[in-house]
Inverse folding.
């Protein structure tokens, strides 16, 4: 039989049944296709626009154009901070290669421990793949050459260029100018300034205060990227970045160098202020550090080393360390005595080397005694006995009043962050903080600048500027913001004249003779801040270094038309006259050799409206 | 039937519709791979496979479907042997051992198993079933379908195995299974679901969950579906234009020349293109039913319906996946997705319909 005849033809009855099943089949499959047709209509017809913008977002990526950070110059237009290109070694993470073998090969070439590289690799896990792994910042050309000749060993390696903050003077300006670093998570979280991860911001000093103008504003470009984020085609710039503005600070690097050199290996601080303007001409804290190490994110080891250093190099001793003012406080005592009328200029006391007050023997530093001294002589020769008695008479309230008037116990308002206010004790203060009433004996210690008193170098320099200018109390500043903050103290010219003469005498023939070699005049006061109570009466040279007193020298120059006021503290320096005064002399020699120019306020650098600059208010609040 | 008469009564509309779909596929593959430097020439490879498919389809049409039916068991057995061979000496691609390699040629026997399964089921229904089916017929059919499906699951190729589901269900429907049996199958299916769930791999479970919660894991499993929907939706009414789809040209789409070829096509041609495509598939469905109803014997009717169930079922699974209605599973879109074996077997499937339609008149 023909194979074609072996198959049953459809009879009528079964055909009807089959027709019904075919219809069901037809309807079922048609419905499926119809549902899909509706789906397409819904996606493309109804929601097409939404999906179109989703696709655009997929495709287009906004990439920030980073502004160049403004340069910082000193008043002579010497470069303090600039920006230079830095070459970074990165590994592309697209393509899902295991990067570890490449890192293992790279580690010896770039001299980074392999564990550190693995740590970096672990840290970027979960970040978008188009972000490369940063292997090392600021790679040297020799290293790059060694990588380049073995190119095939490093298929993912790429060089990225970015701008790196550079401080050519390194440690010279570390504390006052500060440093920059990557924006912190906290700053990102508060994000008032629309900062982005990876942005470089000022972390301390001038870099922090004037971060906004220095940083500028980022621009944007748009690039088309593929699914793994690789750029395709040309970029389109949406908005050019506004580069940061250059800033000319008040510092004079020549004085700065002399001051740093003078402090040498000692721990301490010095600050020199223009008495007419409040310009900070020099400000140094030692030991210092190299701010460049922060520019690209500091390594864990370096950070640990620098924060673990017992000498605390990051700490700005000029504004954030407070010391007992020692005899320098006698300036406040003399003013308080004269202004309250407790003493007259002619009032004399007899010093025989010690005196007994409230049943306790108090020593003068000069064992043989000063004999009969009036207030001018007592200040010039720093007679303790005179001021013990004055303190007993004038009382803590008046001392507090005049100390406060000179700005002690309150921040000076200098335009960098981190200032400490120190302690200017009063009855209320002692009751509030120590839950103890004020004892008359406390006043006696305060009278010679010891005890509960604590002041910062910047406060002392500011006070000396006020003494020098017959009571103009200025706000020290590193950049000129108008108007200058100043106030006239209600202290009589007569009183200040006595103090001025005493301070001149102290340098001419008193405790601070080493402050001048005679080529210029200096008025000043030495001081020793007791580190240990028992140090009184023991020669500093006989004590181990870290038990010696801190040495102060504060003052101004020249005596007839004061231009510059200063405060220097040398930790464990012993006598102010021997350790601190010579430092002041060194700086002043540079000052007089070639007086600083009038600060040009940036106008010569670039035509920018500097008065538009608004500084971040980083200052310690003046009222508590 | 002489060659001359055969040519005269050929079902040209069906052939034109099929070739249109293949042509759309070539365009879609060319577009999807335009930006991929190592895949730029794939559409030419597919064109070569089309020539193979046309030759094979000519043979399929030339030989009377009733003669194919005589050979059904032999062919089916041969494919099963090939499937066993695949498991023994096959080449693994992307985790599935489904390829047989002969020199420069690679073939997926599982694609041809669909073809022989349609044939053997049609023969079985025509020979053994009259009126309605009982349990015995059900078991026998399960063996016929179960052998290739079991071997394909061992590869393991879930997607291809899934295509046998619409074929089998259609066989039950048109074979006239009793309601009691359907209920029984459903009950067993429900009881077995938890067991099957434990057998699934982690990523497969994720894919199924993603259907119910597309927001789940947008960068992982949900990513593909999301990118596919963005591609389709962003095409709008008229599409972004040939080779202008950003989703496909920028490689956002996964498997954009194979399983997700529709997404890129819908992106570039819009609703008009997608509707045209669905229209063409509906036209094939309709032509298949016309052929089924005009067949002179029950064998021809069954054959046409099963082939239609296969093609439209596979379209449904693929499109459902691209639209996010079904779990992401590796199923090519018939005629469009890149892949030689799939193209040849799908064209040969339509060739069976043409075969039946051409021989609708008695002798």
């Amino acid at each position: 039989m023909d194979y074609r005849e072996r198959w049953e033809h459809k009879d009528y009855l079964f055909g009807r049944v089959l027709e019904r099943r075919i219809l069901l089949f037809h309807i079922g499959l048609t419905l499926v296709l119809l549902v899909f047709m509706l789906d397409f209509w819904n996606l493309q017809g109804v929601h097409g626009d939404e999906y179109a913008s989703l696709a655009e977002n997929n495709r287009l990526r906004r990439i920030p154009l980073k502004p160049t950070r403004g340069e910082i110059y000193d008043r002579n237009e010497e470069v303090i901070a600039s920006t230079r290109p830095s070459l970074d070694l990165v590994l592309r993470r697209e393509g899902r290669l295991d990067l570890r073998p490449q890192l293992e090969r790279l580690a010896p070439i770039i001299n980074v421990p392999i564990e550190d590289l693995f740590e970096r690799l672990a840290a970027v896990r979960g970040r978008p793949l188009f972000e490369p792994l940063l292997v090392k910042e600021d790679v040297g050309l020799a290293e790059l050459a060694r990588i380049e000749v073995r190119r095939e060993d490093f298929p993912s390696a790429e060089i990225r260029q970015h701008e790196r903050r550079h401080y050519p003077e390194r440690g010279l300006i570390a504390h006052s100018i500060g440093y920059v670093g990557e924006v912190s998570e906290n700053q990102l979280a508060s994000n008032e300034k629309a900062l982005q991860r990876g942005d470089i911001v000022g972390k301390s000093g001038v870099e922090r205060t004037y971060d906004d103008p220095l940083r500028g504003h980022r621009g944007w470009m748009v690039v088309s990227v593929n699914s793994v984020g690789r750029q395709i085609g040309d970029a389109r710039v949406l908005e050019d970045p506004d580069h940061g503005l250059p800033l000319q600070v008040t510092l004079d690097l020549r004085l700065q160098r002399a001051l740093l050199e003078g402090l040498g290996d000692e721990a301490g601080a010095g600050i020199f202020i223009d008495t007419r303007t409040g310009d900070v001409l020099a400000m140094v804290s030692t030991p210092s550090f190299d701010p460049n190490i922060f520019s690209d994110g500091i390594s864990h080891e370096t950070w640990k080393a620098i924060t673990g250093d017992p000498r605390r190099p990051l700490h700005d001793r000029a504004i954030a360390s407070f010391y007992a003012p020692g005899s320098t406080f006698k300036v406040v005592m003399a003013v308080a005595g004269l202004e309250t009328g407790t003493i007259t200029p002619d009032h004399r006391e007899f010093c025989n080397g010690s005196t007994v007050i409230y049943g306790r023997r108090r020593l003068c530093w000069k064992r043989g005694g000063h004999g009969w001294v009036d207030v001018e002589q007592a200040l010039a020769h720093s007679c303790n006995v005179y001021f013990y008695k004055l303190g007993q008479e004038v009382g803590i309230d008046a001392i507090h009043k005049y100390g406060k008037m000179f700005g002690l116990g309150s921040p000076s308002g200098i335009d960098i962050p981190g200032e400490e206010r120190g302690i200017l004790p009063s009855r209320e203060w002692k009751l509030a903080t120590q839950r103890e009433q004020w004892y008359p004996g406390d006043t006696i210690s305060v009278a010679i600048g010891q005890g509960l008193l604590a002041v910062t170098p910047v406060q002392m320099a500011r006070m000396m500027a006020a003494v020098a200018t017959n009571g103009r109390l200025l706000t020290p500043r590193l950049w000129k913001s108008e108007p200058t903050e100043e106030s006239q103290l209600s202290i009589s010219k007569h009183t200040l004249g006595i103090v001025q003469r005493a301070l001149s005498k102290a340098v001419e023939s008193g405790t601070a003779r080493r402050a001048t070699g005679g080529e210029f005049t200096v008025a000043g006061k030495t001081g020793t801040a007791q580190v240990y109570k028992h140090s009184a009466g023991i020669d500093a040279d006989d004590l181990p270094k870290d038990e010696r007193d801190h040495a102060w020298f504060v003052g101004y120059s020249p005596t007839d038309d004061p231009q510059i006021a200063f405060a220097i503290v040398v930790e464990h320096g012993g006598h102010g006259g021997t350790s601190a005064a010579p430092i002041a002399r060194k700086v002043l020699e540079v000052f007089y050799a070639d007086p600083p120019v009038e600060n040009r306020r940036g106008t010569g650098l670039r035509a920018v409206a500097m008065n538009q600059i608004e500084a971040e208010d980083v200052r310690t609040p003046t009222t508590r | 039937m002489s060659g001359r008469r055969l040519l005269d009564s050929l079902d040209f509309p069906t052939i034109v519709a099929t070739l249109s779909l293949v042509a759309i596929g070539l365009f879609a593959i060319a577009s999807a791979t335009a930006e991929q430097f190592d895949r730029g020439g794939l559409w030419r490879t597919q064109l070569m496979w089309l020539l193979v498919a046309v030759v094979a389809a000519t043979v399929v049409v030339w030989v009377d479907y009733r003669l194919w039916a005589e050979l059904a068991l032999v062919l089916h057995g041969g494919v099963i042997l090939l499937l066993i061979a695949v498991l023994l000496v096959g080449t693994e691609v992307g985790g599935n051992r489904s390829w047989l390699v002969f020199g420069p040629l690679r073939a997926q026997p599982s694609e041809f198993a669909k073809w022989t399964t349609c044939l053997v089921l049609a023969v079985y229904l025509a020979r053994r079933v009259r009126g309605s089916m009982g349990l015995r017929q059900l078991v026998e059919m399960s063996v016929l379908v179960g052998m290739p499906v079991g071997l394909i699951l061992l590869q393991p190729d879930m997607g291809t195995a899934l295509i046998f589901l619409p074929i089998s269900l259609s066989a039950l429907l048109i074979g006239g299974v009793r309601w009691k049996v359907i209920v029984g199958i459903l009950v067993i299916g429900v009881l077995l679901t938890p067991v099957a769930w434990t057998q699934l791999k982690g990523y497969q479970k994720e894919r199924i969950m993603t259907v119910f919660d597309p927001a789940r894991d947008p960068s992982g499993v949900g990513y593909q579906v999301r990118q596919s929907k963005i591609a389709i939706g962003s095409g709008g009414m008229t599409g972004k234009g040939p080779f202008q789809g950003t989703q496909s040209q920028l490689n956002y789409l996964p498997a954009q020349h194979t399983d997700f070829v529709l997404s890129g096509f819908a992106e570039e041609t819009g609703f008009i293109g997608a509707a045209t495509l669905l229209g063409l598939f509906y036209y094939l469905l309709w032509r298949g039913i016309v052929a089924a109803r005009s067949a002179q014997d029950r064998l021809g009717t069954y054959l046409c319906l099963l082939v239609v169930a296969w093609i439209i079922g596979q379209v449904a699974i693929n499109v459902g996946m691209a639209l996010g209605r079904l779990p992401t599973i590796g199923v090519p879109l018939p005629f469009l997705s890149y892949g030689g074996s799939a193209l040849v077997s799908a064209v040969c499937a339509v060739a069976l319909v043409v075969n039946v339609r051409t021989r609708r008149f008695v002798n």
Remarks:
- Chain A touches chain B at residues 3-4, 6-10, 14, 17-19, 21-22, 24-26, 29-30, 32-33, 36-37, 39-41, 43-45, 47-52, 54-56, 58-59, 224-228, 232 (CB under 8 Å).
- The two ends of chain A are 115 Å apart (CA to CA).
- Confidence is low (pLDDT under 50) at residues 600-613 of chain A.
- The first strand of chain A starts at residue 60 and ends at 65.
